[in-house]
Amino acid sequence: MNATKMAGLKPKHFLWRMEGSVAVIQLDRPERKNPLTFDSYAELRDTFRDLVYAEDVHAVVFLPNGGNFCSGGDVHDIIGPLVEMDMKGLLAFTRMTGDFVKAMLNCSKPIISAVDGVAVGAGAIIAMSSDIRIATPEAKTAFLFTRVGLAGCDMGACAILPRIIGQGRAAELLYTGRSMSAEEGERWGFYNRLVGADALEAEALDIAKRIVSGPTFAHGITKTQLNQEWSMGLDQAIEAEAQAQAICMQTGDFERAYRAFVAKEKPVFEGN
């Protein structure tokens, strides 16, 4: 579906609402700390793929539900069936979960994760794959794949996590599966800041609304460059940014900013 409007989206496996042009997502199994299932993985993947074409969504906020962010893959609904699958089925599953992360990275919209309580396994991956992360002091984040007999290299963790917190710290978390405290997460740069639980949602939405008040087309370019330049040499990255900025200089928002500056007014961006 090449959707252009997503305000009326009614997903089956998570909560969705719009706050202006900010989409708000909450996993909806609070009694079990919001685990993911095969169906919720797939629906989230498809939703983020559709966001590329969504003209009415300019940022996304992931919120906790019931005091927790996400407890990862459901033990009974996912891990149990995986034990019985053949290699073809297992690879289809792991590629699907990886496609969810790729859809987050490639959706062209800034994503803010607001973490409270547990964010473990795939929940930690969702936070990791977001552009900005905030948390409460009670947040506990763990890449606990080794604790269920798997490698730490799940859903891009070995590529993305070291970029955020450094190779040595990432290696420790991925080898041991131990929980990273909120204080560690902030000190290491995983979390941008810590806020109280009563202020978490408001802070996340405030960040999102400040972002969407800016030049949203240009924000999409920024997200693309942030993700792609890790695999570029310096000369290649500088050239890519030259081309990207030249594209942005053709937008109405660039001209609006100039006209507003001349008139000593605050620019009002329209995303084109």
CATH topology tier name of the largest domain: 2-enoyl-CoA Hydratase, Chain A, domain 1
Using only CA atoms, what is the Rg?
A: 19 Å
Given as residue ranges, the uncertain stretches (5+ residues, pLDDT < 50) are none
Strand order, biggest sheet? Answer: 1-2-3-4-6-9
Distance between the termini: 23 Å
CATH class of the largest domain: Alpha Beta
Q: Report the helical percentage.
A: 40-55%
CATH superfamily of the largest domain: 2-enoyl-CoA Hydratase, Chain A, domain 1
Shape: globular
The CATH architecture of the largest domain: Alpha-Beta Complex
Return the structural class: alpha/beta
The succession of helices and strands, N to C, reads: EEHEHHEEHEEHHEHEHHHH
**How many domains, in number, for the residues?**
2
Question: Count of DSSP helices?
Answer: 11
- Tell how many strands the DSSP assignment holds: 9
Description:
The protein is an alpha/beta fold. It has two domains: 14-212, 2-enoyl-CoA Hydratase, Chain A, domain 1 (Alpha-Beta Complex), CATH 3.90.226; 216-262. The chain is 48% helix and 14% strand. The chain has helices spanning 38-51, 75-84, 87-106, 122-129, 157-165, 167-176, 182-188, 200-212, 216-228, 234-248, 252-262; strands at residues 14-19, 22-27, 59-63, 111-115, 118-120, 132-135, 140-142, 179-181, 193-194. The strands form two sheets. A six-stranded mixed sheet has the order 1-2-3-4-6-9, sandwiched between helices. β2 (22-27), α1 and β3 form a beta-alpha-beta unit. The longest helix is centred in the middle third of the chain and has 20 residues, at 87-106. It starts with 13 loop residues before the first strand and ends in a 10-residue tail after the last helix.
